[in-house]
Amino acid sequence: MHFRAATAALLLLVPPAPLAANSIGFDIWPGSDPDRVISCVIRLQCGRISAAEATGLGMPPENPARWFPAATERAAMLAALQSPVDGSIPSVNPTGARLALPPFVTVAWLAEVGDGLMTGLCIQPGPDLPDPFDRLIATLLPGGMCHRAIASLE
Description:
Oligomer: single chain
Distance between the termini: 51 Å
Number of strands: 6
């Protein structure tokens, strides 16, 4: 017990690695082949949006687009982050969660809340995303791989 308390105290003293605060990552699984997974990452940091898409599970999205968002884009991002933070879109324990059968979408999120960070994972069976997530993709990535992948699953 004493060891756990000491370890926890030590972890609190070690500064965390830099994180991309206020980010949402979508993994769209049209089938069971990980090479066909479509990944999209959207970040809001320092007043700028960064968005990137890639095909294949674990493939890092390359060449993100960066821009200063319009009010509607910023509102879509903040609404999408607020929904899992306030619990209106439930998150699961990422270490114990069971994935749904394809097609499904996983949404990993990280949000600045006060002086700290909150993170979570949402698993959505089927193609229908909750409205704030769907609106985010439609607003920030219209016609992109994620937008097309969600539409093709319906």
